[in-house]
């Protein structure tokens, strides 16, 4: 603190009106209300967790994986980021024929999945690399 004043003080050490804080604690709730709120919060947390789990399951379906892969959530996110980078490289290098690259069909997905798996096995990607 350069000015030497304490928080909540104006010039000369006088308390400033906006620096005051109320120290009152909230009014105690009846135990039934607190329990009901806790139950509702638990339900919301379970729904959030399930939604996150479902999203990771969908992401794992999209990302090409090797038969030996058992990916954690962080590994899944890192692999997804690497896959996106890989797809950008494929598009930039123009190695795929424009018709196949432009269409989002099964054959294009299979060819990209295969190319990504080869790319991973050649050591261009590693699970321990940070991204």
TrEMBL record:
Keywords: Developmental protein, Differentiation, DNA-binding, Nucleus, Transcription, Transcription regulation. Residues 1-36 are annotated as: Disordered. GO terms for biological process: cell differentiation. GO terms for molecular function: DNA-binding transcription factor activity, RNA polymerase II-specific; protein dimerization activity; RNA polymerase II transcription regulatory region sequence-specific DNA binding. Residues 36-87 form the BHLH domain. This is TWST2 protein. It comes from Daphoenositta chrysoptera (varied sittella). The lineage of its organism: Eukaryota, Metazoa, Chordata, Craniata, Vertebrata. The gene is Twist2_0.
